[in-house]
Each structure stands twice: as C-alpha cells, then as structure tokens.
Amino acid sequence: MKTLHYNVSGLAGTQSKTKVKNALDEIEGVQDVAVDLARGTIEIQYNEPANPGQIEHCIRHTGYDITSENTK
C-alpha cells in the first residue's frame, strides 16, 4: 500500500471534508482517506489501480488546490 500526503487550500468545515472524502472514496484502489481540516491536509492510502495523477485530478476537480505533496 502506498500513501500520499497533500497540503490543500480551501478545506473549511465538515462539508468540505465530506465532499473530498466521498470523491476520493469513489476511486478504485483508494483504501483510506484522512482529512485534517485544522492543518489543511489530506492523507490517502491506496493500491493499484489508483495512481497519484488520478488522485490529484480528483482533488482539483472537487474544487481544492494542492499546495504541496509528499509521497511516502
């Protein structure tokens, strides 16, 4: 399993958290999504066929900007 960690701008309130979490959960291979509103971070654990490009596109398409990323 791989982990991606993103700093994301625009996350505010439980509605934002639910919106991005539900969108990411729809990607085949995504195992877990943790959204930290206080820090503005999203951590995603995934396996194939999910990939970083697909995950990043989903976050941006949901209306949030990735300000930095860290792949573990």
UniProtKB/TrEMBL annotation:
Q: Which InterPro entries match?
A: HMA_dom, HMA_dom_sf
Instruction: Write down the SUPFAM superfamilies for this protein, in alphabetical order.
Output: HMA, heavy metal-associated domain
Q: Which CDD domains match?
A: HMA
Q: Which GO terms describe its molecular function?
A: metal ion binding
Q: Which Pfam families match?
A: HMA
- Coiled coil where? none
Q: Which domain of life is it from?
A: Bacteria
Could you identify this protein by its name?
A: Heavy-metal-associated domain-containing protein
Which species does this protein come from?
Answer: Clostridium aciditolerans
